[in-house]
Amino acid sequence: MSQIFIPDATHFPATADLVIIGGGVIGAATAFYATRAGLETIVVEKRAALGELTTSASLAAFRAQFAEPENIAMMKESIAVFERFAELTGADIGLHQQGYLFVTTAPDGYATARARVELQRAHGLDDVELLTGDDARARFAYLAPEITAATFRQRDGWLSAHELTYGYARASNAQFFVDTTVLGFCREQNRIVGVVTPRGEIRAARVVICAGPFAAPLAKLAGIELPLENIRRHQLTLGKHSLIPRAAPMVVDADTGAHWRPEGAGAVFGWSQPEPPSVPLEYVPTDWEFPARVLDGVARVTPFWNDVIENLKRSDLGLVAGQYTETPDLNPLIGATAIEGLWLNCAYGGHGVMMSAAGARVCVDELRGKNTDHAFRVNRKFKTGEKMVL
Ligand SMILES: Cc1cc2nc3c(=O)[nH]c(=O)nc-3n(C[C@H](O)[C@H](O)[C@H](O)COP(=O)(O)OP(=O)(O)OC[C@H]3O[C@@H](n4cnc5c(N)ncnc54)[C@H](O)[C@@H]3O)c2cc1C
To answer: What is the mean pLDDT of each run of 10 residues along the chain (390 residues)?
Structure first.
């Protein structure tokens, strides 16, 4: 079983097979798969606890309803792991498979939704339901009359990002050192052979950067420029309210990207809005214009929110922000870099919680010299294209 502790002078390891920089959900998942593969693993996290930076801002939702084959495959694998998580790790991650419902009011919405579902079926995702506006309203009575089409997948849903992170960590055999910042790298000629921390060096043949928004500055210390941008994203939470349907799925306005899902007797909301890229931030400031904007946004497709808004007080709301760390093609960077000994598992944008299992498995396969030719490899050519950012 893993150990999670603040190191003191009497215990700080000098060597390991693998050092993971960052104890968010990606670092914890990577530790889980690495120790299962027999690698003696140390995770170094600068904060006082795991999962406290981007991971804690997440809506913790997951979906296989992607359009790209590589993302569908990642999500089918990850969801299968979430469904067996208790058996694999003993942890209860609060799995809610209440589905993801994408809705549209576009006049040609049904044809567009049908084309997407056909594409998903061609890529092996055969359990997405295609609904007319009337079918959708018959199933989900709170949908707006303007909705022309919807797609629904029951096995999509959400979980607790905190329990997932600690579930991976506790079920791994790794040692986690919190309150410990990686300041630089140990080198031998052109190779990375470990990390430098204020408590001493840890020598390791392999180092993986899982540092979320801080991945690019760390890679730069090692001599690599990563094409990453950090973009602020908000999560709004609303406490208990009698009008919120507790059995609802995650509802996504496919025309705008505004989305909400129930959380207990309340709800959580998100919406990717235009924001300038920023340096990585330890504390991401919030914009209190966001709540009114997102509530208006979701009311377009689920109009009961207009009634909720009427009597809202600011004290009913909670707002947090974090950063999406994104590549030009909005897919993560996983695997070996041009510098021997240095690996990446980062840049998951809005998908790090949901892709954590498959992403970590891909990374550890590469660490073991297997399957280096995958869609997320670090030296790929980035194809940019139209993609909905959630
Ligand atoms: C508002 C919002 C909503 C989101 N909703 C979803 C969602 O519904 N579903 C989903 O799948 N994803 C969602 N995401 C995205 C998801 O949260 C991220 O993709 C994921 O948390 C990234 O995890 P990570 O471990 O890579 O990064 P982080 O959680 O940021 O962890 C990186 C860790 O590295 C540590 N670190 C950095 N530098 C150093 C150093 N020098 N030394 C030691 N430690 C260091 C940091 O302290 C941090 O703990 C959302 C994100 C936001 C902001």
So the answer is: 67 94 98 98 97 98 96 98 98 98 98 97 97 98 98 98 98 96 97 96 98 98 97 97 97 98 98 95 98 98 97 95 97 97 98 98 96 92 77
Six-digit token string for 170: 């506790």
Of all protein residues, whose CA lies closest to atom 33 belonging to ligand 1?
22
Reference 51, options 221, 238, 176, 215; nearest CA is 176
Domains, the chain = 3-58+162-228+328-367 (3.50.50.60), 96-155+229-326 (3.30.9.10)
What residue ranges line ligand 1, CB within 6 angstroms?
Answer: 21-27, 44-47, 52-55, 57-61, 181-182, 210-214, 218, 233-235, 270, 322, 324, 346, 348, 350-354
**Contact present, 238 and 317 (Cβ < 8 Å):** yes
- Decide: 233 and 323 in contact? Cβ < 8 Å: yes
The reported pTM is 0.98
Q: Are the C-beta atoms of 267 and 274 separated by less than 8 Å?
A: no
